[in-house]
């Protein structure tokens, strides 16, 4: 009998199958029915009597629906075994980790309580927006990174001294780590967002760098593309070469892809934390390693 059983929200099925293969687990296909009012009904075709169940489910848009599905799968799994690992490569609400304006709810703290209540014993996330917010989860939490995988991808492209740009200071350490791994340099812009209006402003002067370099704009997630567009606008006076947008979580809602491409971006490169056309980097290896390491 398999030590691992892997189930998934249908939105993460391809990633889940790859993880199951790498950890030597049995993949159990989840059945999903969505009713006209938007409610979801999930079922797992096989009852597991023991072993470890790995629930793979990103809370990609529609975030609330996929969050409920994730919690439901965890809850059902916890009825079958006491060892449930929740793999949530993209965790929605991770940015809501502080009370930025008086009266705001720290939603990620609420979600953390739900994961524990549903029965998850361990949580694995990828490039979590606010690592300190993982402290809200009163279960074992492991935040793995896709940076080494991006480095492997870009080494194959053989760009000449590209410049890695983080749209804000928050992601600077990761941008520097990524740049170092591909033998180049990185900078971070001082981006400020008005908490009431959402308006983005870059406040610092741009440091000198050689003209004509390719740009790799590197961030943890891209949703509307607003930060990317502001970054490109800020850099437009420089005679840069090709522009790449790299992110762990390619949310890309609405017409964000078109706006980013219209701004001159050659390629958008994301991981399969959210499965789709931008899922060019496979996370199954680093996630599988985290699962196995957690069992030791």
List the helices and strands and how they pair.
Blueprint: E1 4-8, H1 13-23, E2 26-28, E3 31-34, E4 40-43, E5 52-56, H2 63-80, E6 84-88, H3 107-118, E7 122-126, E8 140-144, H4 147-157, E9 163-166, H5 172-181, E10 185-188, E11 191-193, E12 200-202, E13 215-222, H6 226-235, E14 243-250, H7 256-262, E15 265-271, E16 279-281, H8 284-295
Helix pairs in contact: 1-8, 2-3, 4-5
Strand order of the largest sheet: 2-1-5-6-7-8
Unreliable stretches, pLDDT < 50, 5 or more residues? Answer: none
> Number of folding domains?
2
Which percent bin holds the helix content? 25-40%
- Number of helical stretches of at least 4 residues: 8
**CATH topology type of the largest domain:** Rossmann fold
Q: What's the story with the biggest beta sheet?
A: 6 strands, parallel
Radius of gyration: 20 Å
Number of strands: 16
Shape: globular
Structural class: alpha/beta
Averaging pLDDT over every residue, what do you get? 91
CATH architecture type of the largest domain: 3-Layer(aba) Sandwich
- Tell me what portion of residues adopts beta-strand conformation: 25-35%
SSE sequence, one letter per element:
EHEEEEHEHEEHEHEEEEHEHEEH
Intertermini distance: 19 Å
Specify the CATH class of the largest domain.
Alpha Beta
